[in-house]
Structure formats: structure tokens, C-alpha cells
Amino acid sequence: MMINASLDMINHAIGYRKNLSADPSTNVYRIFNGYTEGLPDLILEIYGTSLLIFDHGKNSTLDSEFFEEVRKLCWQSFPFLTSVFLKRRNGESEKDKKGNLLFGKEIVQFVIENGVKYAVHFQTNQDSSFYTDTRNLRIWLKNNSSDKTVVNTFAYTGSLGVAALAGGASKVIQTDITPRFLDLARLSGQLNGIPSKRHAFIEGDFYRVVSRLKTGKALYDTVIIDPPFFSSTEAGTVDLSTDSSRLINKVRPIVKHEGKIILVNNSLFLKGATFYEQVESLCQNEYVSIKEIIPVPQDVMGYPETIKSVLPIDPSPFNHSTKMIILDIKRKDQRTV
């Protein structure tokens, strides 16, 4: 595709997002979702003063000339930008996959969303270390976690747990198998002045950590399950195409009476209706019920006026392949402590 035609599509999409920069409480958002807006291999996101470019092409033809034109275009609409960082999912080297600075001297160390600071490190993994698609869930957690105890499993860099802490959670336990991810979660807590006694960390496998928490007999108001699409350890396997019910049942014993389980499923090729049915199969009695579906923000998806193609699998009743659902949990013993 000619550069000019591509730039026109990007500029058209940006036009619907210019107002996002007017909100001082949030400086991280998506300005182009090529998957639905015409260039399937390209995603553009703003992180503070940095433009982050994701090139997902298997045999990408996007070159330095194209990226420089993209930079110029973005600078026109977002003149506060000072740097460009490129990540190629299928890059030839690990460095290309984790990313390179294309323009500027410095990249941001943290972003602000809904008034909360989150530490970011673009090279800690092949993604950005922070997911824009779960913004509305972080907002929900901030608004619904006052005086609550929260366990954030598969915490990754801990943004969901930090949102709960920013909303007044009395204690959040962040657990992940990779310590360097938890280091970013710890830094996010510090950026927001969260006392260490409210912010705990457990490094370890999901199945073993949950078993340990169960043995400890403590119960928690909210348990978050946001796993990778697929993972396997000696303790067990996670496969989001089939395992939703099993993951819910694994954490139910540590949830208080009238507590919450939050489940995120980001499987691109799992139909929304299939996932919903998996969760609904647990709602055949009074102990588990579906409270709410959390939508993905419009800037992450694209707008009706900018979308040129639909997702490969129908996500409904969700609005995106990142499917987020909140469950109300009751206990037979009605324990809350």
C-alpha cells in the first residue's frame, strides 16, 4: 500500500482521538488500531510524551521512511511528543522485538491514567508493560475497592492492583511468576505514595500461590484473574480457550461471602458467546452470578467512522476480544473473615 494512502488512514483515525490529550488525568491511549482501521500490522499508542509504534507484521515492509512520516503526522496532532519507540513483534533480533528508540533521547518512565501513576518499561517484554485495553477495568477497580482486600493473580506489572490501591484498598497482594514484572508493580505503588504494608508481593506459580493462600485461611473481597493466553508450569496449565471455569473454581475458596471475582480473557479466537457460556455454566445456583461486563475503550477499538474491518471472531456480548467480566460470589458458610 502506498505511503500516502496509509498516512491518510492514520490521520483519519487520529482525528477522532485528538480530544484525548485534553484530559490531564490520562496521558496514555491508542491513536491508531490498524487491525480494524486499515493497516492490520500497525498499532500506535501515546505514553506521556512518547509515541509507541507496534509493528506486528510477519514479513513487514514498513521501513524507516514510513515511520518518519508517521512521526511527523503524529507531531502535528500531538505536538507535546518528544520521542518515538518501535517494537517489531517478528523482528530479527530480540532487541528488535523488545524495541528501539527511533527518535528523541528519552522515553517515559511512567504514565498517568485516571489520575493514577503507573511505571512503564518498554523493553521489559515484547509489549509495552501496560495495557490500554483494560483501562475501564482499572477505573472500575479504583471506584469499587475502598477498604477492600484484593488478590491480583497473573499480576504482570500490577496495574490492576495499583488501581485498587489508588481507590483505597486496605491491602493488595500482587502475585506473578516473574519477579522483574513485580518490580514495576512495586515502583507504581511507590509513585502513588502507597504504604508498603498495603502492597504485598508473592512471586510464584498461580496454582501454588492460590493453594498457599487457601491454606492460610484468609479470605479476600476481590480476586482478579488476568492470565496469558497459554502458559504451562510444573504445577499446571492455563489455556484460555477452555479453562475459564477451572480458574474461577480454583480461586473461589479464597473469596469472601458477597465478594467478587474478576476474569479477563484476551483470546482473540475465542468467541465472546462461548466464553460467556463457559462462565454462565457456573451460575446455575445462587453462589455465582454475573454482575457486569466491562467494555474496552473506544480509542483502543476504533470508532464507527474509522473501522474498516471487523475482528475475526465475534466477541459479543463483549465489545472486543479482550473480554472482561465481574462475578458476584456467595459462600455456603457465609464467611467474610
N- to C-terminal distance? 61 Å
How many structural units, i.e. domains?
A: 2
* CATH fold group of the largest domain: Rossmann fold
Number of strands: 16
Tell me the strand order in the biggest sheet. 10-9-8-11-14-16-15
Identify the CATH class of the largest domain. Alpha Beta
**The CATH H-level homologous superfamily of the largest domain:** Vaccinia Virus protein VP39
SSE series: HEHEEHEHEEEHEHEHEHEEEHEHEHE
Provide the gyration radius in Å.
20 Å
Mass-distribution shape: globular
Task: Give me the CATH architecture of the largest domain, please.
Answer: 3-Layer(aba) Sandwich
Question: Can you tell me the residue ranges where pLDDT is under 50 for at least 5 consecutive residues?
Answer: none
Number of helices: 11
Tell me roughly what share of residues is in helical segments.
25-40%
Please provide a brief summary of the model.
This protein starts with a helix and ends in an 8-residue tail after the last strand.
What does this structure look like?
The longest helix has 14 residues, at 64-77. The N and C termini lie far apart (61 Å). The chain folds into 2 domains: 3-108, RNA methyltransferase domain (HRMD) like (Transcription Regulator spoIIAA); 133-329, Vaccinia Virus protein VP39 (Rossmann fold). The strands form 4 sheets. Strands 10-9-8-11-14-16-15 form a 7-stranded mixed β-sheet, with helices on both faces. It is globular, with a radius of gyration of 20 Å. 42% of the residues are buried. The model has no long low-confidence stretch (mean pLDDT 94). Helix 5 (135-143) packs parallel to helix 6. A hairpin with a 2-residue loop joins strand 2 and strand 3 (50-55). Helix content is 29%, strand content 27%. It is of the alpha/beta class. It has helices spanning 3-15, 34-37, 64-77, 94-98, 135-143, 159-166, 179-191, 206-215, 244-251, 272-280, 298-301, and strands spanning 28-33, 42-47, 50-55, 83-88, 100-103, 110-113, 116-119, 149-153, 171-176, 199-203, 220-225, 230-233, 236-239, 255-265, 288-294, 323-329. The protein has 11 helices and 16 strands.
